[in-house]
Amino acid sequence: MRENAESFHLAVIMDGNGRWAKGRGLPRLMGHRAGVEALKRIVEACPRQGIDYLTVYAFSTENWRRPSQEVRGLMGLLGEYIDRELERLRENGVRIRVLGDLAPLAPALAAKIRQSVAATAANRRLTLSLALNYGGRQEILRAARALAARALAGEDPAAWREDDVAAALDTAGMPDPDLLIRTGGDLRVSNFLLWQIAYTEIWTTASFWPDFSEAELGEALLSFRGRQRRFGGV
Ligand code: IPE
Ligand code: IPE
Ligand code: MG
Question: Labelling 111: which of 23, 53, 117, 187 has CA 20 to 30 A away?
């Protein structure tokens, strides 16, 4: 995917796990389990496809509204994913980052996630950002608070640029996504990366996340390559 020496950032709204399960007469959690398998496949495919940054929406700030059994199941799967995959991710040069606020998660799970971030901090082949308890508006609110604290400490906000806001977000230091893929057929952003997707190209699939394949990823990338990004110019 790399054109010039620039890095490529793919963001994914992994949607449709519940409907995938329903269509098979299975409980929703089985859909999430199949979704983890799809995530593993796509993580492996990314370096082959020239993707340097993969950012996936795993749990939104709004997903707490789901039945507590489903929330518990999702958290359990997350812990399982890290237990089972961390070593392999580490060996494959994957750096794990987290977007979102880990504070409301169970302390043991939050600690496990922080350890996985620390254990992979030196890796550069692929940066896998897990958006967990993530919401774009909440992220912007947290950044606003951090900037306000700097102003109270004496900095002059008039001197700030867009980069100062970007650096206060959870994605600090990362390029903005080049392409956003949403599976599951819905045409909405659902509070994902609101600041960062200002000029991101969008691709949606009717297929549900557990069925998303490297071939479909290839299709999305092919479409992306054929587009002209104007960034407001001519
Ligand atoms: C996306 O699948 C996964 C998460 C939100 C964690 P859904 O669970 O939203 O699946 P649908 O949209 O109900 O089919
Ligand atoms: C977005 O999917 C969140 C994740 C994929 C984690 P949702 O299923 O929560 O989004 P809505 O409710 O359809 O907007
Ligand atoms: Mg959904």
Answer: 53
